[in-house]
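Hey, I was hoping to borrow your eyes for a little while. No rush at all, and the record is pasted right below:
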Amino acid sequence: MAESDSSTRTLPRQRPDPSPAHAAVPGPVVPVLHGRFGLRVVDPEGTDPQLIARWMALPHLVATWEQPWSAAQWAEDARLRLRGDYSVPVIFTVDGADAGYVELYRVTRDEVGGTYDAHPHDMGFHIATGETGLIGRGVITAFITELADGVLTAEPQCRRMVGDPAVDNARIHRALTKAGFVHRDTVDVRPGRRISLFIRSRPDD
């Protein structure tokens, strides 16, 4: 990732120039989780970028994320996210151990924001499970469930939590469905990027 003026840059998947009503909404919340799961904001000046780079070089994440960047690139990406109000980079933990990477984002500032009737406070997430021993054991489904519960509790104005995996990522589709998300649509958000839009609404929405 080349160095440039961060004030003029957008991040991958970010929509530039949100409407005034959407721009007035603060950045994403990071909920406090309980039990075996935890969240902590990425520290771009520590060892987190090296950890994320190692995870993103794994074959299953190269295939789904297509971002096998260097640690320096991940550090710069985290700095940009933390300076802005679009997305927050987070490490999720399982039983106290680092397990994967999550980006919590405001839907109206993301490329999926134009794919449904998004509310200004709606939030979404991108997830990368780095510790492969957790895959296929129900752990990630349980984490996604608690993450969505946590966001909807922490932000009462958030009406929907959104997942937007690639259309061919069947494993995460199953996890989202088990976590209470409903498949809403299949959308081409940009050339070469077709997603399955999953939404979990508040019970009273």
